[in-house]
Design goal:
The complex is a heterodimer of chains A (219) and B (127).
Chain A: H1 2-17, H2 22-50, E1 58-60, H3 62-79, E2 83-88, E3 95-97, H4 99-121, E4 127-135, E5 138-145, H5 152-160, H6 178-189, E6 195-199, E7 202-209
Parallel strand pairs in A: 2-4
Antiparallel strand pairs in A: 1-3, 4-5, 5-7, 6-7
Helix pairs in contact in A: 1-2, 2-3, 2-4, 2-6, 3-4, 4-6
Chain B: E1 2-6, H1 10-22, E2 26-30, H2 33-43, E3 47-50, H3 59-67, E4 77-81, H4 85-90, H5 92-98, E5 101-106, H6 112-126
Parallel strand pairs in B: 1-2, 1-3, 3-4, 4-5
Classes of the chains: A alpha+beta (219), B alpha/beta (127).
Chain lengths: 219, 127
């Protein structure tokens, strides 16, 4: 985490040395907000792993969570020239999760991918999708891009390299990729898994959620 | 003077490009090693500013490739990186001696002003 936070701080100090106009002022603000959000989400992950009952499962609308995640990530995506799309195909009922936890996990992994995208694609148009879709295992919510680097192998290697490498997702991110692992810890504490997933021709990372049965209980 | 910057982070890349252009340099950039070699081939840079920690191919791999061409063996290279001194020192001999790196700047400890000063200094030396 400490390694990961060096980058936004370097960005801020370098930007502060330029002629700060409205544009660089707004980039500084977004960079600082994004770093603060990552710290908050990291703390949430640690807290949840120590006290899993902190965030109880409730009925959560995946669509509305993804709308909120897009709101959170819009400015950061703009900083990195990434076009952030929402793909909410199909109408799914509520899932059993915790909205704060799910949103924090999706924001963390989304921010990590946004920062990596310019280097992943070089000059290609940068698109990232926040999407939900049905699968035989449940309802998937995740972050998708047009790159095979978003694979289960990359995630597992990254998890194995915990504490032993400064660049845990070497084919995917030039940073430590902390956001992805913060998302993993939050999801794990909620009894969910971070996994690689595919949707149409897109590759992604996300989690499988189960439809909530609470609304069907009459008693 | 033509400068090639290889920097994976978009925000930093924009800051460096803007500042170097403002200082009167001709700047081209790439986010990764492979694109860096392609651009170097077109641009024929007089100086390279390089981050070591890149996606897929590292900065060291870029340097091996760069130095394998006779024309590019004397191009000054400034390492401007997030890799801390303790780790850089493990490869110091390889980078500074074998791969001809001129300067090492650790991003968290060096300012934009310092990077520009190093570039200006190397510009004077090569001019």
């Amino acid at each position: 985490m400490a390694e990961e936070l060096k980058l936004p701080l370097v960005q801020i100090t370098n930007l502060a040395e330029t002629d700060i106009d409205q544009v660089s002022g707004s980039i500084i603000k977004t960079t600082a907000n994004s770093a603060l959000k990552l710290i908050d989400n990291y703390i949430l992950g640690v807290k949840l792993s120590l006290e899993p009952q902190t965030l109880n499962a409730e009925n959560v609308s995946v669509a509305s969570t993804l709308y909120d995640v897009r709101e959170e990530l819009t400015d950061l995506a703009k900083n990195y020239g990434v076009n952030l799309e929402l793909n909410i195909a199909g109408k799914y009922g509520p899932v059993a999760a915790n909205k704060i936890g799910l949103e924090a996990a999706l924001v963390s992994m989304g921010a990590a991918l946004i920062e990596a995208m310019p280097a992943l694609y070089e000059s290609r148009q940068l698109k990232l999708q926040l999407a939900t879709h049905g699968s035989r295992y449940g309802i998937v919510a995740g972050v998708y891009a047009d790159t095979k680097q978003l694979s289960l192998g990359a995630l597992n290697t990254g998890k194995r390299l915990n504490q032993s490498s400064r660049q845990r997702l070497v084919g995917l991110s030039h940073t430590n990729g902390a956001g992805v692992f913060v998302a993993d810890s939050i999801l794990k504490a909620m009894g969910l898994n971070l996994t690689a997933t595919r949707h149409h021709h897109w590759y992604g990372i996300g989690t499988v959620l189960q439809p909530s049965s609470q609304l069907q209980l009459a008693v | 003077m033509k400068i090639l910057i290889i920097e994976p982070d978009n925000v930093l890349l924009n800051v460096y490009t803007h500042s170097l252009k403002k200082a009167g340099y001709q700047v081209s950039s790439a986010h990764g090693a492979q694109a860096g070699i392609i651009i170097a081939n077109k641009l024929k840079p007089d100086l390279v500013i390089l981050e070591l920690q890149l996606i897929e191919h590292s900065g060291i791999e870029f340097l091996y490739e760069l130095r394998s061409y006779t024309d590019w063996q004397d191009i000054p290279v400034v390492i401007n990186t997030i890799v801390p001194p303790a780790e850089f020192n493990n490869s110091r001999k390889l980078l500074m001696h074998d791969l001809g790196v001129d300067r090492y700047l650790y991003k968290p400890n060096s300012s934009l002003h310092e990077l520009l000063s190093v570039v200006n200094e190397l510009n004077l030396v090569t001019a």
